[in-house]
Amino acid sequence: MGMKGKLIASMEVKCGGHLLFDIFHTNNHHVPNISPRNINNFEIHEGEIIKAGSIVSWKYNEGGQQMYMNYLVEAADPENKSITWKLIEGDLLELYNYFNVATSCDHQWTTWTYEYEKKSEDTPEPSFT
């Protein structure tokens, strides 16, 4: 059994948390514009907007390499401006048995929570950089 962990970060966002949630929820084609050096592509494969059951893929840069991941949206709550994602495919599954992400937005703040299980002690801790 691997080592389980949880990483939580809250960040102030100048645009307001409600706008950040809106980008992920209904205007996801703008996600690569937020950080074009890090995120190359964000696409919904199932569902028209982010809602429970949607399948979403990301292509991103990590350490100079392009990587990908597919997430299942487990929950999306527009009223509370939160989304819960479960990794179902991608490069991270080579290092982690599971990797889940929860996002929430409130006023000028957004909070990201990573829950994961490392496959070995040598697996690096995830970070928000």
From TrEMBL:
<dbReference type="InterPro" id="IPR000916">
    <property type="entry name" value="Bet_v_I/MLP"/>
</dbReference>
<protein>
    <recommendedName>
        <fullName>Bet v I/Major latex protein domain-containing protein</fullName>
    </recommendedName>
</protein>
<dbReference type="GO" id="GO:0006952">
    <property type="term" value="P:defense response"/>
</dbReference>
<dbReference type="Pfam" id="PF00407">
    <property type="entry name" value="Bet_v_1"/>
</dbReference>
<dbReference type="InterPro" id="IPR051761">
    <property type="entry name" value="MLP-like_ligand-binding"/>
</dbReference>
<feature type="domain" description="Bet v I/Major latex protein">
    <location>
        <begin position="2"/>
        <end position="128"/>
    </location>
</feature>
<dbReference type="InterPro" id="IPR023393">
    <property type="entry name" value="START-like_dom_sf"/>
</dbReference>
